[in-house]
Amino acid sequence: MPHFKSHTLTLPALPFETTTQEGKFCFLEHYISAYFKNRSLLHTRYIPHNLPPKDFFLSIKSPKKDQYLIKCDKSSKIAPIEIAKTALLFLANQQNSLISHNLTPKNITPNFKLPFIKEIADIKEMLEDSTQALWLEIGFGSGRHLLHNAKNNPDILHIGLEIHHPSLEQVARQIGLCKLKNLLIFNYDARIFLELLPTNSLERIFIHFPIPWDKNPHRRIFSPSFLTQTHRILKERGTLELRTDSKEYFEYSQTLAKDSPLFTAKEAINQQNPITSKYEARWKRQQKNIYDLVLTAKKTQKNTKKPMILLFLPQIQSNKQCLHNLLPINF
Are 241 and 110 in contact (CB under 8 A)? Predict the structure, then answer.
């Protein structure tokens, strides 16, 4: 988490504005806790060029009499984190008794852009230009499995989907540091993303440790319609691979597979993988069973090879798009 420490704290006269290359920062109000006098929040606003403003809070704590810790407040954490980092760096530069900070800019995310997180509009050109085999991982989390696959299968184009932005940033930085040219990640809902993929385009789909939703099974990504959609986009003998610690989720998915004429199924328990994810390591420490279900697509539909055009309707909100806002149209 970006932060700085200082023996004293000097804030500009509020409200205060400063303009940077990336946009304008406004420090608006300083709120002191009524219960904890050594804690306060600084209301901050970032106004990018030609985009809506983003509000967040900087947390100010004084754990010792002569020391202040200033960082981004977790409850209002903003993404990309470089926004908060720039606001903190401005404040740190105003202090005369700075102790330490971790606010050095990173070269791989200049101007608050994470170039390895792709826009949904890129997918058409990406698929048209690529002659590589395609693998997709839905909900890659910390990215260990996704990055392992990309490093060890350089001839395959890997696509990762994740809606948790800190995870996206973390993996984006690893893509830059490892100089991976065969890995693309998207901040997008999988069920809508699959609608945009051409028929028979993927060789493998991975879903590792999804939220089991044992009390709300209707929210699970596995469903009859999901199996129909994945069967459409998988090549013949392509695989849909589920790995989970939830016995209930495993048995539910197993039943769906047996009822589906589109796949053959193979199950395994406590099968060792070349790479262990963060969650898997946790479950193994708790001596929980790990369940694998591999569905292999039977004969698939014939690829029509019709061009796919994405129609973007007005007022699309990037993280709350639905299928009615974003329609694939085949001519």
Answer: no
| Residue 225 phi, psi (nearest 5) | -70, -35
Q: Which amino acid is at 120?
A: I
Rg (CA), the chain: 23
Element (H, E) at 193: helix 190-195
Rounded to two decimals, the pTM is 0.60
Look at residues 299, 281, 298 and name the one whose alpha carbon lies nearest to residue 290.
281
Mind listing the pLDDT tens digit of every residue in the chain (331 residues)?
Answer: 889 999 999 999 999 999 987 789 999 999 998 888 899 999 999 998 767 888 999 999 998 888 999 999 988 878 777 888 889 999 999 999 999 998 876 543 444 445 567 766 666 666 666 678 999 999 998 899 999 999 999 999 999 999 887 888 888 888 888 889 899 998 888 888 888 888 999 999 999 999 888 888 888 999 999 999 999 999 999 999 999 999 999 999 999 999 999 999 999 999 988 888 777 888 888 888 999 999 999 975 554 444 443 433 333 333 333 333 333 333 3
Q: How far is CA 54 from the centre of its chain?
A: 19
| Residue 67, beta-bridge partner list | 64
Nearest to 156 by CA among 203, 207, 206: 203
